[in-house]
Write a structure and sequence with these properties.
8 strands, alpha/beta, 200 residues, Rossmann fold
């Protein structure tokens, strides 16, 4: 079933618009936002990132557009060892960071960079006729880029909300966004969301 959004025209009569959009919030896990972890976001960027992410989540929630959360759950012993168990399945600090607004009870898990490797998530998108994916979260150079690439290969239109995406550092983020643009991804900022339909 698609999600219906109430909209009002100039006449003031309510009309129904059908959305084919969804927001993906990727890997905003406590350990990955903790500067004491072996693998984490640029600490200086965290406050702004969380603010812009929550503003984006609020925007999509108010538009009655699905907000879908995805987290890493790693079972590979070598990967867990090398990263200090930051995303070890069932490990401490692997849940969604408490500073991030949680507006949906459904959280999908993955063990690969591409969030759409979770068949349940892909099935949800197909069953609800979602064709446009808005991507936020961590890391620009890894799972954000990997999910964008995977989504394009599945025929989705992909928009990355750049100021609601985190990275290990600004250079990695810049390079990742360039790669995504070269793949055909639209990269915008959160303050452009209200204008997005005129930009695509």
């Amino acid at each position: 079933m698609t999600t219906a959004i109430a909209a009002t025209g100039r006449t003031g009569v309510a009309k129904t618009a059908v959305t084919n959009k969804a927001l993906l919030v990727i890997d905003v896990q406590e350990n990955l936002l903790n500067p004491d972890s072996r693998l984490h976001v640029d600490p200086a960027a965290v406050p702004f990132f969380i603010t812009q992410l929550n503003n984006t989540i609020k925007f999509f929630k108010e538009e009655n557009t699905p907000v879908l959360y995805v987290v890493n759950e790693w079972t590979n012993p070598l990967l867990n060892f090398l990263t200090g168990d930051v995303c070890k399945k069932g490990g401490k600090g692997t849940g969604i960071d408490k500073r991030v607004d949680l507006v949906s009870g459904t959280i999908y898990s993955k063990s690969k960079m591409n969030a759409l490797s979770n068949k349940g998530l892909l099935q949800y998108l197909r069953e609800n006729s979602i064709t446009e994916l808005y991507i936020t979260g961590l890391f620009a150079e890894a799972c954000v880029k990997g999910t964008a690439k995977g989504a394009i290969s599945k025929g989705f239109k992909v928009i990355i909300i750049e100021d609601a995406v985190g990275s290990k550092n600004s250079l990695k983020k810049f390079r990742a966004m360039k790669v995504c643009k070269d793949m055909g991804v639209k990269v915008i900022r959160s303050n452009q969301l209200e204008l997005i339909d005129h930009m695509l």
